[in-house]
Amino acid sequence: xxxxxxxxxxxxxxxxxxxxxxxxxxxxxxxxxxxxxxxxxxxxxxxxxxxxxxxxxxxxxxxxxxxxxxxxxxxxxxxxxxxxxxxxxxxxxxxxxxxxxxxxxxxxxxxxxxxxxxxxxxxxxxxxxxxxxxxxxxxxxxxxxxxxxxxxxxxxxxxxxxxxxxxxxxxxxxxxxxxxxxxxxxxxxxxxxxxxxx
Amino acid sequence: xxxxxxxxxxxxxxxxxxxxxxxxxxxxxxxxxxxxxxxxxxxxxxxxxxxxxxxxxxxxxxxxxxxxxxxxxxxxxxxxxxxxxxxxxxxxxxxxxxxxxxxxxxxxxxxxxxxxxxxxxxxxxxxxxxxxxxxxxxxxxxxxxxxxxxxxxxxxxxxxxxxxxxxxxxxxxxxxxxxxxxxxxxxxxxxxxxxxxxxxxxxxxxxxxxxxxxxxxxxxx
Lengths: 198, 221
Prior knowledge:
The complex is a heterodimer of chains A (about 200) and B (about 220). Chain A is mainly alpha-helical and about 200 residues long. Helix content of chain A is about 75%, strand content about 0%. In chain A, helix 1 (about 5-30) packs across helix 2 (about 35-55), helix 3 packs across helix 4 (about 85-110) and helix 5 packs across helix 8 (about 175-195). With about 220 residues, chain B is mostly helical. Chain B has nine helices and no strands. The chains are: A mainly alpha (about 200), B mainly alpha (about 220). The interface between A and B is large, with 41 and 34 residues.
């Protein structure tokens, strides 16, 4: 049987070593060492998952919040003082972001109502047939092809490929404001074209 | 995006960053600029005619000194509150000076009440509130701009303390050019304005300080 005192000391020494190692990695990351930063974030990951997992059960929620914590750490990494311990710095950010996520969920659920029977939102009794779905897709495709090139490209990038406004702006070289207008006009034109067809 | 993929993207885009200076240095920088600004205003408006006499009165010196120290300590505490991992007690650093300030005003109220009585001492005077608000605007804008470099881990405490720093400095400056010495007036209209504005700053914290997340520019390509 192992001596609990020895185990405690070993555990303490392991966490001291990790603390020292993370402190050095973060110092290097602040100086622009990308490898050190990658190692640090990867080593932090299991701990963050465990911390978030204590409060959240859904795997996707855990990953979303962990990603939020990682982005937060990245955004404020200049606030870390290498003369101070690293783990309290990390845990303060994690605790704050977990609390923010809980608040978001709470405020969202305050505006939601749970119902046993979902209200019907369609007038017909039957779902569309395969032919009808196929026809609809063809109509959308035709309406898209009828758009001017700029509008078609904006729809393809943002609605089909799912790019953000910033990403689409970088790819096309257009300003965000101009892209917003283009997408709005394209959607309006497609809506009108589809109305005419149906 | 997968979390491991996000880590690779963040690491790839990690540029060197300029570390945030120690909160005490930041508070000193803010105090230096803000004191210089309010000093200019005091000189421009003109110091009160009895200033030499007042500076020899220990009660006046303690009151103004406590207000000034409340301001500097509140600024340091606000900057500490923007640094993750720092002890929470640091946020209470201005409290002893705030208590001394309040006690000096309370002692003045009691003394004047014993000497003169309560009749007609408290009058409606919005000038103090207006002066403190106007004088503290620029120092408040400066400290809010500086705070944006910190992390919004305690936004309400941070903005509350920052507002306290700016308004306490304005209240101290006001004592140098506004010849108002009735303690109950100082307590209600000057100290009260500082507490009220700091309270407003506290409740606006969540709106004024938010996380600005830097999303990775590229995917895993």
